[in-house]
Amino acid sequence: MAADSEKGKAAYMEDEETDENPADIQPRFFRTPSADLIPNAAVGAAVQASAVRRRSSIRLEQRGSVHRKKSLGGGTSPESLKGLPEESIRLRRPLEAGEPLQLEDDEEEVIRFGGPLTLEDVKSELRGLCTLETLRRKLPITVWLPKYSRTDLLGDVVAGLTVGLTVVPQCLAYAQIADIKLEYGLNSAYMGCFIYALLGTSKDVTVGPTAILSLLTGTFIQREMGLEGDWAILLCFFVGCFQLLMGFLRLGFLINFISTPVVSGFTQAAVIVIILSQVKNIMGVSFGSAKDNVGQTLAHYVRKMPDTRGWDVLMGCLCITLLLLMREMAFPAWKAREGRQHPPKWWAVVKEAVRLMNVSRYAIVVVSATIFEYVMEVGFNQHYLSVTGPVTAKISAPKPPNFAVENLSLGEILSTFGAGLVLVPLLATMESVAVAKTFAHKFRYNIDVTQEFIALGAANVVSSFFGAYPVTGAFTRSALNAESGVRTPMGCIVTGTFVVVAILSLGQLFQYIPKAALAAVIICACLTMFDFQIFKELWIIRKSELFVLILTMATCLFLRVEFGLIIGLTVSILMLVYPMARPVVVVQKKLTARKHPAQLDDYRISVKPQGSVFFPAAEYLKEIFNDPIFKTPVTAFSVPRESFAVSNGAAAPPGDRNRMELREALPPIIFDGIHLTSSDYSALRALRSVFVNCKSLHRDIVFVNTSDEILDIIMPFRRKDEDAEKKNDVVVPMHQGKLLPAGKPK
Questions:
Q1: Acidic residues bias: where (predicted)?
Q2: pTM of structure
Q3: pLDDT band for position 53 (50/70/90)?
Q4: Which residues neighbour 113 within 8 Å (Cβ) at sequence distance 6 or greater?
């Protein structure tokens, strides 16, 4: 009995959670004063001996749902608990003598997700703006900085320096893609890091110029009068303003309208365009601009082929080979040998050195090529390679962008950028958010997409005051950041600081960087962006999306990248809204199997929309009801028209049921709105016109499973009993699939 008592105590736990398999749940016990242990099969007998006094809560754990609470309501009889299969019953406290077993109803919480914006939603957002939690969300640094430790600092410093070795050569190379001076690439590599560390929600993202954004920048800026740098800075400012506006208005969902096939098609085409644009630097020739399409670029290569410089080709090929080799470089794992299970210390040192060479390969190649050119030019006065030329590498005081560039007004500047004011910020944010989501999922932490808009917008606006062009989160550098063990956004600050130190200390050496080395960096970075798998997957899953991808890719290649992106977006959105203009509506005509004419409702036509219907489908709904299936009359028995309502009524008086006559008539229409969860005024006006048309033809139309809100639009007079002509227009109930005769409602 003592052992049993201990089991009873173990069974008495308040709101205990269990991780056991539901299939392994065994019958448990609960206590009463009259018996220490009572199995659940004896619950009824035990409780019948108690008198009614107070209430207590119990918890039932069913098979297959271990954590589910079951409510039987107050006053449940003990007999109702008999025979429950394999259930365990726990009391929050022991029952006293004479106390009944009564169950309290469980509370439930209902949360609405999605749907149209309501006034209550706006009020809730406004109330949330004035809370401490909102301030912490808008300044994420206030969350992680108080918990910062030495371990975090070590990881962030190592990762920040590693990324810094990559970002310096890359930002110089990406400025070459945009076809602007290299100092604008350097200016874009540090301030964005500082701002994102304050406002960003991802520990892994590093902000700076990217290949895709550099290509778009070179496409949308003007190059007259040598002011392309001013135009690039202005674009950075307006891109940041657009991102801030979207963040504050919570319009981040707009990036979801850019489908994956469109992005993939644009990316594949951009990679080809970028690689082709850099081959000229490996050849040592100069021509064209960033706005040239593939056809124009290939034509330029044919004309410039005789001017190819051998030393540049040699340097470019050598740099590409070294980069590809170092990317694949990996130190073999230690294999345990007899007498030595653990590797020696030198093994770990060499392994770390190989890893460092792998992650800093861009810096190694660019520095080596620069040293070679510096020695040849300064030491031997030999000019073998095409170099970047003088670079104004300095940290200048902040100043606003030139809003009077070429003496244009603000409106003229905005019109000059055109679609770039929308496409560039959307693609920039989408690229960064995709990177942040990838690493948030990998390392199991959360990001705030709206805050990401604000962080990127602030980074671009502030960077524009330091002479930068548009920046965003870079996937390759963020992946390197994560692999290097970054722990907090402080890693971004370390990277930005490294870039500042490099600008101040190495600024005079940037002019000796060979263009072929930078072109090799760009080409090797872009090779990883090809995605051949998506073609196969789209071919299997949905060929229409494959068409969108190929169309976007082709137009980007043979027109211009901005035109291709716009065309791809347009086609993708048209494919998205087409089902709204042509929703699925199932029309089923009821046919009788009898040889003799049956009642008219045996031939009824059922109309059932398979989802919500909105204004693009308004005329389409009318066309459906004009289909010949609705216009074919049938011969059937019917109650004379004057004895019951035109449509939508209750059961007819018994005396009228015998007044059946054989006549030719249009079968009744039953509109089933069970899937019509939402609609708008235009679509419901179309249904109203169908309803009015049926009335004018003396044809029955019945609305079932349709909400009152929708019926109030379709039949606005249905509740006005004072209108004698329209009194009987109410919904007809259905009974066993038959249409009841209509009559005056009671």
A1: 13-22
A2: 0.70
A3: very low
A4: none
| Cβ neighbourhood burial of 576 (10 Å; 0-12, 13-18, 19+) | exposed
Instruction: Return the closest-CA partner of residue 486 out of 367, 359, 362, 365.
Output: 359
Phi-psi region of 736 (alpha: psi -120 to 50; beta: other; left: phi over 0): left
Q: Find the range with the poorest average confidence among 29-33, 331-335, 524-528, 559-563.
A: 29-33
- DSSP codes joined into one string, 184-238: HHHHTTTHHHHHHHHH-S-SS--EE--HHHHHHHHHHS--GGG-HHHHHHHHHHH
Q: Cα(170)–Cα(522) distance, rounded to whole angstroms? A: 7
Q: Which amino acid belongs to residue 527?
A: L
Specify the residue for token string 């969902």: 253
Residue 694 to residue 713: CA distance in whole angstroms = 16
Banded model confidence at residue 79, pLDDT cuts 50, 70, 90 = very low
Q: How confident is the model at residue 65 (pLDDT cuts 50, 70, 90)?
A: very low
Residue owning tokens 């073999």 = 332
pLDDT at 50: 38
H or E segment at 665?
A: strand 661-665
What token pair was written down for 641?
């028209």
Give the pLDDT score at 494: 95
Q: Is the pLDDT of residue 644 over 50?
A: no
Adjacent-strand bridge partners of 635: 664
> Minimal CA–CA distance to 230: which of 446, 55, 402, 14?
402
Q: Residue 16: what are its φ and ψ, rounded to 5°?
A: -75, 140
Evaluate whether 46 touches 34 at the Cβ level (below 8 Å). yes
Give the residue carrying structure tokens 């027109």: 559
Distance CA 521, CA 167 (A): 11
Q: Does residue 64 come out as left (phi exceeding 0), alpha (psi in the -120 to 50 range) or beta?
A: left
Instruction: Please report, for residues 14, 87, 103, the alpha-carbon distance to residue 65 in angstroms, rounded to integers and kept in the order given.
Output: 18, 11, 19
Helix (H) or strand (E) holding 517: helix 515-527
Environment class of 688 (CB within 10 Å of its CB; exposed 0-12, middle 13-18, buried 19+): middle
Counting Cα atoms < 13 Å in the Cβ hemisphere of 409 gives 2
8 Å CB contact between 717 and 692: no
According to DSSP, the residues that pair with 59 across neighbouring strands are 90
Per-residue pLDDT reduced to its tens digit, 268-280: 998 899 999 899 9
How would you class 119 by CB atoms within 10 Å of its CB: exposed for 0-12, middle for 13-18, buried for 19 or more?
exposed
Mean pLDDT of the chain: 77
- What are the structural domains, with CATH classification, of the chain? 2-91 (no CATH), 152-333+346-391+401-562 (no CATH), 585-739 (3.30.750.24)
Most confident of 122-131, 169-178, 388-397: 169-178
